[in-house]
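USER:
Class, as today's exercise, take the chain set out below, and explain how the chain folds.
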Amino acid sequence: MYRLHGFCQSGNTFKVAFLLRALGQSWEPVFVDFMHGVTREAQWREVENEMGEVPILEDGPRRLTQSGLILSYLARKHGAFCGAGEDEQHEVLRWLLFDNHKFTSYFASYRFMKAFGASAPDPSVMSWLRGRLDNAFTIVNKHLEARRFMVGGAPTIADFSLCGYLYYPVEESEYEVETRFPHIHSWLSRVQALPGWAHPYEILPGERVAPKW
């Protein structure tokens, strides 16, 4: 049985949990108390992950970190959601990198500062992030205009990766997707219809907390 370390506010953990469920794999959640700073502790980083991040996936003696790597590992191991052929697999990797560097990166930072930061967010920082968000979301929205999924005609781990933070309540980010990015919104409905989907607050450990700011 896989063991997945993370917490319910982590969209990166959700990406992996969703894929495990879609693959029909048994897994056990392991709660990481990120909100109270455990990942910043030197001992936790020494034992668990030097990068101070979740998710962490245990597969027997093997421990993997970084959601993009974990998604790729699981897709290859179970022979699903990889993309059909070499060209699609390269395209999947391209979108994984874009997601990790821009799409999820900017959105997760924006949402965290708005909902969970220790102090009220700096308006100038939020304005800068929002501009970067608008650009990244516009790119993905245009890409999905004539496609059902991110790569090819079937879902891949690119879809699992890009959707990771977009099922959380809009009040946590105040970044509205439905009307501004209709192709992303329609795509999220298609992804949500895949076997194994469930809301992150239902399948991941930890407690939901109200947005602070």
Summary: The first strand starts at residue 2 and ends at 6. The CA atoms of residues 20 and 74 lie 8 Å apart.
